[in-house]
Write a structure and sequence with these properties.
It contains 14 helices and 18 strands. With about 425 residues, the chain is of the alpha/beta class. It has 3 domains: about 1-130 and about 300-315, Rossmann fold; about 135-295 and about 325-335, Dihydrodipicolinate Reductase, domain 2 (2-Layer Sandwich), CATH 3.30.360.10; about 335-420, Alpha-Beta Plaits. Strand 5, helix 5 (about 100-115) and strand 6 form a beta-alpha-beta unit.
């Protein structure tokens, strides 16, 4: 059996797991790859950290990029700019590339595809860690038009929401717990503001539709403002609240969005709880398929990294993102303001007569009709909470209505919306 030499740039949580699994599962991995996988070098920032690994380490990235004996470069440092430079240099030096870096791919996946030509790039670990969703979209479902995809793509935010719903905890307490358990980063902003799920949805949208969108092009909202009123309302009307990445095809237009959504409690995806990830993909021929598993963590993510290495060694080569649009297959990103949904709206208002009429009038002027209405008592004097759900309307209509509502004197806090995903 031949040897394949690997260089790992970034030997942290995932890098260490890659090295450990390559060692501990080496017989089955060699049998599957038809080669011995040898980690020749690793590169880190700080050589004095204790890592309990036996491979040679350096702090010079060029030690891997310039080593002619290294066949495959694994980029596991994270971040966008430096990781992109590493990826470009690896490809220019004709080395296959494996990366788990969703942030870098959210911006540069098409740049890399262009540079790569026939040099393989694996990125299975970039979306939902151990779940093989990239291979499912690129290969398994390739006979289908993807009609819709809905995913819980970020485990940290799913853990926080699960704690809020099941244990009546508030957002801050649940976030703190996620940090104590090591699920959330010291800076958890991309987990809770939807940014991380947005990066992953953009990667999936390329595989499903060939769409080259960037984070600023799509709706990305997080879970920071969800409170107990929203959870109670959802529960009463048979919904769970999840941070969803959604892609939907309507003829040639594709809508892409990440936001908290109320979804039927009985749907399989509503039952994806805690730190787990889950994705539902509906193909026009296969129907609905579901994927569930650990979306992060050293070993699950390393499992995906190593599956890419094995695929590269086996020599299966295809365009990085599966396909490119043609004159016959050309999908466009749907403008945000044209996206349609039902909406839940939470309003904190002056508890006096005439306020409800003012609110109803603004909604009517924007062609928004109400399907459900609840008024809740609150402890503060002269304050009422109104929770309502609308029929189908557009982002533009809801945005205009919310802007007008904000200007009403009787509205005490900015209105808060959650989209309702009924389909
Ligand atoms: N952790 C997960 O569960 C998970 C899941 C899916 C995807 N990912 C992705 O996988 C990648 C790696 O994540 P991770 O959790 O393993 O990160 P991590 O634990 O922070 O490890 C990063 C590694 O990169 C090294 N590094 C950082 N900047 C460097 C530089 N300029 N030059 C050389 N080495 C540098 C660090 O060196 P030192 O050790 O010396 O500091 C460390 O070894 C990221 O793109 C992340 O988004 C992670």
């Amino acid at each position: 059996m031949r040897n394949i030499n690997i260089g790992i740039i970034g030997v942290g949580t995932v890098g260490r797991s890659v090295i450990k699994i390559l060692e501990e599962n080496k017989e089955i991995i060699s049998a599957r790859a038809g080669a011995h996988l040898v980690v020749k070098k690793g590169v880190v920032k700080n050589l004095s950290k204790i890592r309990n690994i036996s491979i040679p380490l350096s702090t010079n990235i060029q030690d891997i990029l310039d080593d002619e004996e290294i066949d495959i470069v694994i980029e596991l440092i994270g971040g966008v700019k430096e990781a992109y430079e590493i990826a470009k240099s690896a490809l220019k030096n004709k080395k296959a590339l494996v990366t788990a870096n969703k942030a870098m791919l959210a911006y540069h996946r098409y740049d890399l595809q262009k540079i790569a030509h026939d040099i393989p790039i694996g990125f299975e670990a970039s979306v939902c860690g151990g779940i093989p969703i990239i291979k499912a979209l690129k290969d398994g479902l390739s006979a289908n038009h993807i009609l819709a995809l809905r995913g819980i793509l970020n485990g940290t935010s799913n853990y926080i929401l699960t704690q809020m719903i099941q244990n009546n905890q508030d957002f801050q307490t649940s976030l703190k717990q996620a940090q104590e358990l090591g699920y959330a980063e010291a800076d958890p902003s991309l987990d809770i503001n939807g940014g991380d799920a947005g990066h992953k949805l953009l990667i999936l949208a390329s595989l499903a539709y060939g769409i080259d969108a960037k984070p600023k092009d799509i709706i990305i909202e997080g879970i920071q403002s969800i409170n107990a009123d929203d959870i109670e309302f959802a529960d009463e009307f048979g919904y769970a609240i999840k941070l969803l990445g959604i892609a939907k095809k309507q003829k040639d237009e594709i809508e892409l969005r990440v936001h908290p959504a109320m979804i039927d409690k009985n749907k399989m995806i509503s039952k994806v709880e805690g730190v787990m990830n889950g994705i539902s993909v509906i193909g026009d021929r296969v129907g609905e398929t579901l994927y569930y598993g650990a979306g992060a963590g050293g070993d699950p993510t390393a499992s995906a990294v190593i599956s890419d290495i094995i695929e590269i060694i086996r020599g299966k080569s295809s365009l990085m993102l599966g396909f490119e649009q043609t004159s016959q297959i050309s999908f466009k990103l749907k403008p945000k303001e044209k996206i349609q949904s039902r909406y839940y709206i939470r309003l904190s208002v002056d508890d006096k007569s005439g306020v409800l009429a003012q609110i109803a009038s603004i909604l009517t002027q924007n062609n928004i009709s109400i399907s459900t209405f609840l008024q809740k008592e609150v402890k503060q004097k002269n304050t009422a909470k109104m929770l309502l759900a609308t029929h189908m309307t557009t982002e533009l209509a809801i945005k205009n209505a919310i802007d007008e509502l904000k200007n009403l004197e009787s509205i005490l806090q900015d209105p808060y919306i959650i989209r309702i995903e009924d389909e």
